[in-house]
Please model this.
Amino acid sequence: MKHMRITAIALIAIALLLLTAGCTQPATNTPAPLKELRIGYQPSTHQMAEITAMAKGWWQEDLAPFGVVNVTDKVFPSGPPEMQAMLAGELDVAYVGAAPVLSALATGLDAKIVAGVNTQGSDLVVRNDFEYTGPQSLKGATIGTFPPGSIQDTVLRDWLQKNNLTPDKDVFIKGMTPGDAVTAILAGKVDGVFLPTPSPSTVVNQGKGKIVVHSGDMYPNHTCCVLVVSGKLIREHPEIVRQIIKTNDKAVAWNLENLDEAAQIYSTKTGASLADVKASLEEWDGNWASDPNVIVEPVLDYAKIQYELGFIKKPLTKEEIFDLTFYQKG
Model:
């Protein structure tokens, strides 16, 4: 019995010691360091900042102090498949049109827009033998553009409706990758294409089409691409999110000061013709802009348009779409 009492006392002492240790040692919820950052982008001059930052090694260099060992990027033909990859957990950051983000958020994507990337910058190009005299002259035409839910599809459909044309009844819209759309108009299989730069310049430079409307004429000052980061990255590594925005802005500033070299970097990365890239930068009506505060209303308007088009089940709120706390002017 004496031995059993000693054992019981010892067990109680150990339990008290463990309890005390639990009380005195602070609980830690420190997230694990982020070793790899995965970025999605598309082959458009809208997103040249991502490409420049990667080519210059700035992503790696700027994020290394935060524990990031490796930064990778992956190209997507358009926004919808890029958002599918983000939904599947394959991307931490995405350069992507605002409209596909809305569709993804409406179906459960845990992410937020934290900055803008560019405004406007897409063109309607028709075959040289097509007599374009205004929106009504498109009646009966077939137009190739990005898939449903993309910026280009959304802007085009909205513009047609505002001009009393019913999409897929008066004007037939075919969802395509940019490469397929360019091939289609070069082969005369569609009457026109509505694509982001530099694709319109590719068609024009091959003598197969003419630019008749800039996207800024369809929807003045419309938002196009945005910078999206995962909810996990926002919650666990806000300092990395802030640096991503700073690195993007650094690349934009460098591109503006070094357009010829930036065009060469883009051409090398994507395989696009350097002449087409340079031409697109001269003719586009776009602008690289990162302040998310100025794109809130246009993006909320996209949400309304997508709801009316039946792409999402309910209009999304500002809080569901944006996290404006990371962007800092200057």
